[in-house]
Predict the 3D structure of the following.
Amino acid sequence: MRETFDNAWIIAKREFRAYFATPLAIVFLTIFVALTGAFAFYIGGFFDRGQADLAPFFAYHPWLYLLLVPAVAMRLWAEERKSGTIELLMTLPVSPMEAILGKFFAAWAFIGLALVLTFPMWITVNALGDPDNGVILTSYLGSFLMAGAFLAIGSFVSAMTKNQVIAFIIAATIAFLFTMSGFEMVQNAVKAWLPEVVTQAISSMSVLSHFERITRGVLEAPTLVYFLSMITFFLFATGIAVDQKKAE
Amino acid sequence: MGTLIEAHQLRKTFGEITAVDGISLTVQRGEVLGFLGPNGAGKSTTMKMITGFLEPDSGRATICGHDVQETPKLAKSKLGYVPEGAPSYSEMTTRAFLGFIAEIRGYRGAEIKQRIASAVEKTGLEPVLDQTIETLSKGYKRRVGVAQAILHDPPVLVMDEPTDGLDPNQKHHVRELIKAMAAEKAIIISTHILEEVEAVCSRAVVINRGTIVADGTAEDLLHRIRHHGAVSIRVPTERSDAAIRLLKDAKVVAGVETLGKANGHIHIRALPRDGGLEAAEVAALLRAQQIPIDELYVERGRLDDVFRQITTSDDQKRKTNGEGAGNA
């Protein structure tokens, strides 16, 4: 157990630093902070609402993540396979699980850093009014969990291909489907011809509905279980994909 | 414990193609095994199974007695591996990359520095320690690959074409390095440079179409060439008939070939019998008949010829059987 943690940690450190080897990391962090702010102020009507909360800020996170998280995840395995370093990594005394966890946590920490850098939003809203900081904290946690779920999807897709562009597009598409499945438009379309149970199942699979519940300040077990099982499932799938595809 | 690498009946197919078809071999401490074969013969696939990167369809491989599939971590901790092309994380500096490998290999604190220092010294990487690997020349990149493999001083070393694409000086350096480590390790290197086999390997295994077609020392392999050990002579054309007759009658000579004429001389080759043929014997025979000898030397077969002979005769057989074209 300790060895597993050590190895995953060593790999995570290397991966995290790898993000900063190119200007890409800075570009990404800047875009993330700028876009979350821009959405909150211009589209979410942060000032016009006259409410001291960060709801308009968090509301756009799922949509931003659709594009930004696959961009962070796409290199995780595709690059290893393209450059052949996967052969090096998999012949070091490291188990595939340690490598998968290490890489995932590095990417997750990177998104976490991006989220932390949005702290001016939190300062602003506290300066302007008297928001419920509990709700804000839960929302941040929810946003982080959602990013983790998208990242796990991205990790799986990245392990399926050597091509980072393909990894990006497919991961974004899968994440989009998971997001949309709770959307009213989709729900109405499905309700018309599918039994209630299926409709509910599809709805409960939706990232959006779980995330909305969290941003209202409700952090329930089912939502936690939902995000954590998404992560577990897709990391497990990553393991299978890495094993099957590593030799190609 | 002498046997450090053991492969037993390794087999691997990719779809319809059988890449490796029942390869077994053992490598002892102190041995450098040269793995020869044409491109696509299954060298790399075999090495990938021995190092545990690929799971064989059947068969097993052990490193220092540890099964690479059942106890992968134990086996891999005894192994240094330079995959084909010596891939490494190109955005890292040499120092950071070797530091990462050292940490993963379980070294901590001051030990990491020591390990890096010793690997760097052996591979001559000091000048590029703080350069990112992507900016290095091919020779240095390859040395980084070798440095990460020997960092933990493993008893088993597997290198896939370690000198491919290097200039003659760099090749020499890598070979010297291998020779220096040979005594206390079991080493497998794959190559298709045959001079390398003679230069560093104590044993050569030739594989073709996924099976072992020859196994022995470079000298053993050379004996497969019929003119290996033959005595070549040049005599004046007017005495050639006499010389040929004389050699044909000699007991120690298996056969005589005429290789060509030039400048009033003829070039004759006397093929050896199993017992071998001494140049002095041939010279004595000719001198007894006062045949002047302009040139006399013992031919050495070339490994290139052995290689071609072993790896193409098989293909020709297939062609005549009507299986011809198909997978390259």
Q: What stands out?
A: Confidence is low (pLDDT under 50) at residues 320-328 of chain B. Chain B has two domains: 3-222, 231-298.
